Structure prediction request, 232 residues.
Amino acid sequence: MISRSVAITLEWAERVCRAMNYPAALATCRRELADIDSISIVGFEREYLDGLLEAAQRRRTDQRILVLFLGSTIGNFGHPADVTFLKEVHFILNPGDALLLGTDLEKPVDRLIRAYDDPLGITAAFNRNLLARVNRELDADFVLDAFQHEARFNPQTRSIEMHLRSTRDQRVTGRKAGFSVVICEGESIWTESSHKYSLAEVDSLAQKAGFRQDAQWVDGVWPFAETLLVRQ
Prediction:
């Protein structure tokens, strides 16, 4: 059964994302990398696959592509969306092109909870900042102090979920995004999911998407893998 908090998120999240100011982030990245003489930078304000497709269409016939999908972003997709996404990437690439894929690995639940709900409140501030941005950029009226950060582990999906739980009944309106919603005390806005993989699962994920694993580097301190996948 889908909770009402999930339905709320799905209902207006797409409108929120469309209205966010992403060109500024691209411009900042370009400025920070501009002093590297050996590279040229072209920014595409696109969704993942649309941007990759446009970049691939601009390549010369003798060029190969290396796609960097770092961090643990693939874990935000969940199953089977992660496989579907990688299949789409595989379709866009040519044989011999490569993908460097970052995956956060399984670790004890208590360690995960501490990471996503740290004693200093850094992650909580990061989570609430989503509402601050919605207020600023979409002319919304979220009261940040009326939401409590929560990190939960979902054993069925083996993922960490981040929520913002309402501490009182409230109505929130985002005028630029055209949404108005009543959130009851105890209901939450589900802001993020991050699936945790095993090394065997990373290999299976690659094979299902049509890639060959060429190399892998694993951080043993905070178990994390960077895997070089080659398009066959």
About this structure: The beta strands are 66-69, 98-104, 147-154, 159-166, 170-174, 179-183, 188-195, 211-219, 224-231. Residues 1-19 have pLDDT under 50 and may be disordered.
